[in-house]
User: Which sequence fits this backbone?
């Protein structure tokens, strides 16, 4: 390395804790510690490093290119971050660890060994621009929301099959606002069949629904099926709400999906 680092640090990170190995360039001794993954605990650990080494440069190797840990550490100017591919660490472990068993403290030390012996092949982390980081966060948030929407839709469909399967045939898309609003107004077959043709026509028109066939007035109140309903997704956006405490009733699920 061109820069002289007063210490080399390897961090084997996890969701709840981080195993840390520190190599002091002066004493050439290894030190091991474990800290919580909480932001305040990470900040306290960095402050301990600053008290010990001042603002002298410190190299940190970790198996992460982006995420909460690297975004927390990048705000400190004296910390030079070196993201290392997890596959590289795994191959290095297999080559030099006879048991090949993964150990968090050992992996933290392997990160230091890679920094010391193969620094010419490891590039320091360069933070992305603010717009790019924001775009990545929005993309990840959208991925989570889409997954949650699919999960809620599947739960609603499974619940409706037990007592209200007709509505699943009436609507082609179960992840639309019109579907959620319909179930809120007409939560069972009796409620739907008791609605007048004019009432239902106003409901569909208010949601900008395009019918593949004309609304058949013979449905109300005797028929047991309708033609397929095809809501325009751009006219009826779905508003998915991420919630960790989902209810068991269909109405509770609908409230989450709206």
Assistant:
């Amino acid at each position: 390395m061109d820069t002289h680092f007063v210490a080399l640090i390897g961090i084997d990170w996890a969701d709840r804790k981080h195993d840390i190995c520190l190599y002091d360039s002066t004493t050439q001794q290894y030190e091991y510690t474990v800290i919580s993954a909480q932001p305040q605990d990470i900040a306290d650990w960095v402050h301990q490093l600053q008290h010990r080494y001042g603002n002298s440069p410190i190299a940190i190797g970790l198996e992460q290119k982006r995420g909460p840990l690297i975004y927390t550490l990048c705000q400190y100017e004296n910390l030079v971050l070196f993201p290392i591919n997890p596959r590289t660490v795994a191959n290095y472990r297999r080559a030099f660890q006879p048991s090949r068993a993964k150990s968090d403290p050992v992996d933290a030390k392997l990160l230091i060994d890679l920094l010391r012996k193969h620094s010419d092949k490891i590039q320091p982390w360069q933070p992305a621009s603010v717009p790019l980081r924001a775009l990545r966060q929005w993309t990840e948030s959208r991925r989570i929301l889409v997954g949650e929407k699919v999960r809620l839709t599947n739960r609603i469909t499974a619940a409706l099959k037990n007592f209200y399967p007709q509505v699943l045939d009436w609507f082609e898309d179960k992840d639309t606002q019109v579907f959620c609003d319909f179930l809120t107004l007409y939560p069972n077959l009796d409620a739907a069949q008791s609605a007048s043709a004019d009432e239902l026509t106003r409901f569909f028109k208010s949601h900008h629904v395009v019918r593949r066939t004309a609304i058949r007035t013979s449905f109300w109140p005797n028929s047991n099926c309708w033609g397929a309903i095809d809501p325009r997704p751009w006219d009826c956006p779905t508003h998915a709400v991420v919630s960790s405490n989902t209810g068991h009733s269909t109405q509770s699920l609908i409230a989450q999906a709206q």
Remarks:
- The longest helix spans residues 130-163.
- The radius of gyration is 29 Å.
- Residues 130-257 form one domain.
- The chain has two domains: 7-121, 130-257.
